[in-house]
Design goal:
alpha+beta, twelve-stranded antiparallel beta barrel
């Protein structure tokens, strides 16, 4: 009888263990599957501008209030194939008024898509394409001399991500061009790197950098323009707030140095820097955490191509 009870207990234990292992495998499979997900962000901040060398002069002001809206949706097309669509809009507080600041960014927008082959446990590889515009403010006197203050933007390239436990490495590179004023950046190549560290599933620390090189002043000198950009961002979740419930918030910083080099006249070289400090909130759907979004959902993004392109205008003064 004891042997029968022992055998029955052993068989029951094996059955429970097998069911538990199967449940763990099923949970793992679900965790590794791509999901339909998305994210909407809104932020507000201030941009500070400063001339470093050469003839750049921000005569109206050296700061302005900026805001941004962005949205991303990721759609699985197959077990490891996904399509993500992005939209971004950045604008200044004077965009709709008569107080536009001469040579400061007034607005930019971008629409784009990413096609990626992804294994949520290891990483992804894919390509992207995007188009949009960048617009600068102009005072009436500048408009009489040069009525064009906007450029159409288009970009294509490739990207990859590597997932190592709580860290994501994100690399992006490609070609950027514009159509508009001769002073705007065009015929450029760029590279961008991002590191994301998930301290908890909903708390993330991110650092990034980018390098851009292209042409400006094509009709006259075909000058070389370079951009070095850097940034940092901290995301976390505030749980169980009144009325709104769990809320995802972030603070961030974005800085860049823009430089134009004239090969025929080095005295005409010019550069300036800008710094943007921002705070905002994000809303996600289709996922349970920021880390799940990063690995199985809408994980890709774009830099502000319109801002890069428009920076060529204040360098040519």
């Amino acid at each position: 009888m004891k042997k029968l009870i022992c055998a029955g207990s052993f068989a029951l234990g094996l059955m429970i263990s097998a069911q538990t292992a199967q449940a763990d495998n099923d949970s793992l499979e679900r965790e590794l599957q791509l999901v339909v997900s998305g994210q909407v962000e809104s932020w507000y901040g201030v941009s500070l501008y400063g001339s470093e060398t050469g003839v750049v002069a921000f005569t109206d002001d050296t700061s302005q209030i900026m805001s941004g809206l962005s949205g991303r949706v990721s759609l699985p097309l197959a077990s490891h194939l996904s399509l993500q669509m992005d939209g971004d809009f950045e604008y200044s507080s004077t965009m709709l008024t008569d107080g536009q600041q001469d040579d400061l960014l007034q607005k930019s927008f971008l629409l784009g898509g990413h096609l990626s082959f992804r294994n949520p446990s290891t990483g992804l590889v894919g390509g992207f394409a995007a188009f949009g515009s960048g617009n600068l403010g102009q005072d009436p006197r500048a408009a009489l001399i040069n009525p064009v203050s906007a450029a159409d933007v288009r970009a294509v390239g490739g990207e990859f991500q590597l997932y190592l436990h709580d860290v994501t490495f994100y690399g992006q590179g490609g070609y950027l061009d514009s159509k508009g004023d001769d002073d705007f950046l065009r015929d450029a190549v760029f590279g961008r790197g991002v590191v994301r560290w998930f301290i908890t599933p909903d708390t993330r620390l991110q650092a990034e950098g980018a390098y851009v090189v292209g042409s400006t002043d094509l009709i006259t000198d075909d000058d070389e323009m370079t951009i070095i950009e850097w940034g940092a961002r901290f995301d976390t979740a505030l749980p169980s707030l009144p009325i709104v419930g769990d809320t995802n918030i972030f603070i961030g910083y974005r800085g860049a140095r823009f430089e134009k080099q004239d090969p025929t006249n080095p005295q005409e070289d010019s550069s300036f820097a800008d710094h943007t400090i921002m705070a905002g909130f994000a809303m996600r759907f289709g996922v349970t955490s920021a880390q799940e979004q990063d690995r199985a959902g809408a994980t890709l993004d774009f830099p502000n191509f319109g801002r890069w392109v428009a920076a060529g205008q204040p360098l040519d003064q």
